[in-house]
Amino acid sequence: MTLKIHIDGSAPPYEQVRVQISEQARAGALPVGYRLPTVRGLAESLGLAANTVAKAYRALESDGVIETRGRNGTFVAAAGSAAERELASAAQAYVERARRLGLTEGDALAAVRDALRAAYGED
Question: What residues contact residue 84 under an 8 Å CB cut-off, 6+ apart?
């Protein structure tokens, strides 16, 4: 695992750690089951505070990219399935909310398309 932190960069260091680990896991450079360094070990090697790396690890775990197995360590998770489950759950919650608000299927889809365009840019 190779990480490079740019102190003068616009992104905070924890976000740089989070993004780089996430990208490497999704690209397969960090395979499922790969054991990540300890928070203290990674912080020391990057010259960062342990709390900075811990914040990145918490965000990665929340995103389903990594999983902590207690004293056994932190490992790259099977992110695809966790991400798909979370997305399906969010979609179900959205549909239930749209129905409670009395929106039609077309209105609900239009709102999703608008949000996707805003997040991913116009095609």
Answer: none
